[in-house]
Amino acid sequence: MTAHYEVRGSVAVITLDNPPVNGLGFATRSAVAAGVERAEADPAVTSLVITGAGKAFSGGADIKEFGSPKALAEPNLLSLISVVENCSKPVVAAIHSVCMGGGLELALGCHYRVAQSGTKVALPEVKLGLLPGAGGTQRLPRALGVEPALNMIVSGEPVEAQMLAMVPGQKLFDKIVDADVVDAAVKFAEEVSEKRPLPKVRELKARHPNAEAYFQFARNMVGGMSKNFPAPLRCLEAVAGAVNLKFDDGMRAEREGFAALMLTPESKALRHLFFAERVASKISDVPEDTPLRTIAKVGVIGAGTMGGGISMNFLNAGLPVTILETKQEALDRGVATIKKNYEAQVKKGKLKEDKYAQRMTLLSTTLSYDDLKDCDLIIEAVFEEIGVKEAVFKQLDAVAKPGAILASNTSTLDVDKIASFTKRPQDVVGMHFFSPANVMKLLEVVRGKETAKDVLATVMAVGKKIKKTAVVSGVCDGFIGNRMIEQYSRQAGFLLDEGCSPQQVDKAVEKFGFAMGPFRMGDLAGNDIGWAIRKRRAVERANMKYSASADRLCELGRFGQKTGAGWYDYQPGKRDAIPSPVVEEMLAKHREAIGAKKRDISDEEIVHRLVFALVNEAAHLLEEGIAQRASDVDMVYLTGYGFPIWRGGPMCYADTLGLFNVVQAMKRFAKNPMDDGAFWTPAPLLARLVAEGKSFT
């Protein structure tokens, strides 16, 4: 059932019923329109109430129908709103819980609106790179006022109904109630059943005392804050149309703006992100109803930067945490850092004192593994060396209770090998947090060959509880993110060999939209980490070619910000990256030693070589089953590696350019004598998709 119809006395009540948020899909729209017509035809009915079943009035469009013919099938949302608005009998919206997007636009088409306090109200389309397309930009300014409406539409953020009801002169809500909103709306509908003419939001005036100056000020503000996103300014112009144009002309301008935005790569990227976030938690062979293990107490081994950050995630979620260290001084330092982080939040007004105190009471420390015996989940965050991991997991195996989940925060090591150090490999999983762990959204959940399905389902649920974007990876060196970034870093090194400076590469990548270029990133993470990996690669994969420039840098002791010198120079206490004459001289000597001739390289070539290196390696990961889907790869890079959101991730970006064009560029790069020609051999999946005219996403 998509909508219910019942009559209470003289009031017809139409209830949207399309779980989970009463999305306005084709069947629901049809059922509501039919309900209005039925009420019109019944002489015993004098007024109508439209409401939503369950935990929402309506969350707007039905995401299951995005991009399908059903999304536009008649009655589309505009047609449904017209049916409601032109009903000859009063229609009252009984709004509760969630009223967003098309749901709010439908409510604005009703003659009256009664809302329950606490209802979250929003027009969030801007977050998908769009503007409200069913009258939201025209009716909300008329009902609420130009400035508060523009703020809501441009930000897309929800506001509680009772706050909106306090806006002077607002006509958005006729009544706010704490009690049952449907009962209140039915009573209200009875009271207004004889009132005529019926009030229509479209007939109100959207006025501003100094509209021209206000909108110019707003353009400057919005343009400066949304330079990579076209939707906010389009939203602003549509709202300006509500003031400057007749209603029908404003509606046409809104539809034109909506259609234009729908075709932009930014909107495509944001819509891709919207769906990618939702599908990342789904695991093909793990049923959604898999019973979860209880996680009531967490243990963390290691009180360093990662261990402390990991602990904060669970403390924030209200879960008790016990941190284990080998020495009391290390514990004291770790706890002091956690306190410092929380105190900084309190100082900025982001955390209340009582919440800070509450979180610290959930934290306990120990020097003994025995104190972890009651933990349901234990995460190790110790030194990234397999011998150290072995010692930890053997001790955990001895003390952890049956059914406890044992997780490793390893970023590259073999989770299956780590699991083999225990007699319970089914309980072992990788939980790779990204630094700083209390800030970064990404959590790579590494599935070992024997990891139990309920362990996997539980860890994914835990990720959601601690507000992480959890993405499943299979076991391989570096998992999804770090395995890909190695190819990106290799290509960055080849660019130096060919004449680029570190700052030229970084600037090109940052102009493209990355939060940080590869060389600034290396200085931040520590160049000695990459050096250790290359030494390991020299033994394990002797045929893998790297630029030797990074080794020459490390031989000079330039490990990055922690030593005050890396690819850049750094002044004490500052993070500003200053181009280094020492590095410039080192690179000149390096190029001379390898017989490289310096050439001019465009920003476009720099960006495409780095990004296509990511894309090609990701295609290998998909082929091998390490990553479940291309959108998972995008989520890893959007939430963990600073890939620009408005480009949708490396796979979405490749699709936007066209995979045929990506492969043609790779063929051109392979002709470069200084590069590793084999590097640009298209992965089998990529070659197959091009041959079939298909895309990743």
From TrEMBL:
Reaction(s) this enzyme catalyzes, per UniProt: a (3S)-3-hydroxyacyl-CoA + NAD(+) = a 3-oxoacyl-CoA + NADH + H(+)
GO molecular function: (3S)-3-hydroxyacyl-CoA dehydrogenase (NAD+) activity
Domain 3-hydroxyacyl-CoA dehydrogenase C-terminal as annotated: residue spans: 478-570, 606-694
Membrane-spanning segments: none
Pathway note: Lipid metabolism; fatty acid beta-oxidation
Keywords attached to this entry: Fatty acid metabolism, Isomerase, Lipid degradation, Lipid metabolism, Lyase, Multifunctional enzyme, NAD, Oxidoreductase, Peroxisome
Localization terms from the record: Peroxisome
InterPro entries, alphabetized: 3-OHacyl-CoA_DH_NAD-bd, 3HC_DH_C, 6-PGluconate_DH-like_C_sf, ClpP/crotonase-like_dom_sf, Enoyl-CoA_hydra/iso, NAD(P)-bd_dom_sf
E.C. designation(s): 1.1.1.35
Pfam family, any one: 3HCDH_N
Domain 3-hydroxyacyl-CoA dehydrogenase NAD binding: 297-473
Protein name: 3-hydroxyacyl-CoA dehydrogenase
Species this chain originates from: Roseateles saccharophilus (Pseudomonas saccharophila)
